[in-house]
What we know:
Chain A has helices at 28-37, 52-60, 65-71, and strands at 24-25, 81-89, 98-113, 117-130, 135-146. By secondary structure, chain A is of the alpha+beta class.
Amino acid sequence: MTELAELPPAPDVAGTRLDGTGTYTISAVQNAALCRSTGVEPSLDGSAHPIYYYVATQVAMGKTVAGLCAACDFDVEEGPMMGSSGVRFAAPLRTGSTYKVTGEILSLVRKRSRKLGVMDVLTYRLRLHELDGAVALETDNVWVLPRKELA
Amino acid sequence: MSYAVGDALPSFVIERVSPDAMKQWAVFLADPNPIHLDVEVVKAKGLGDKVINQGPINVAYMINMLMAAFPGGRIESMDSRFLDNVYEGDKVTASGRITAIDGDKISCDLTLDAEGRGTVNAGTATIQLQS
């Protein structure tokens, strides 16, 4: 088994910007469908399901999922896996509201796991902003990128 | 409504995880990863013989449990760790327990369990109660 120290380093991508170039509006129609797909009815007061913290930031960040993987020199077809997801809300999300996203890759760390072999652990941070710039939420996500070619 | 440290929160149950919901979420997330859509791809990758639920849906189940447990409350923060996959047809149960109360803020531990397979997601959350 190759020692971790003998492996090539993970790509140096910390600091890569993930700012979105457009905006994201939480559609009341889509919010209703999303709520029902998870077994609940949509709120009647115009608040959006809080899981839009993940949906909106992923869709409106500056890279697609495949593009984010590619930035880490990883083919999305190899199967990225979610490791963890955290969010800190400053304000509730509302249907009909429009947001923009800023963010960056925090780290990409090469590790060896007994279960997965060699893997890169990607941590990135995204912020969802109101159009006046106020931060509605900040989310940190961790993905595991299995490096089968290095196992 | 009164709360106390150690209180168990009412569970939220999905009797059968739907592959149709996964198709919807592929659109919501703008992410057409075939492991959520095509069982043949799942088999070819050696990941099982059923399509795999998108991770954020599993988080949404835990959020649904919190929103029902704290009517009018607002999630201030939440963290969750993905421990195992949830598959088409799984029965999953989101549960929680109050770990701390600080004024009108309540902290909880959360789990999502798949019947017969144990905990597939675990985390914590802090809720701001309705004032």
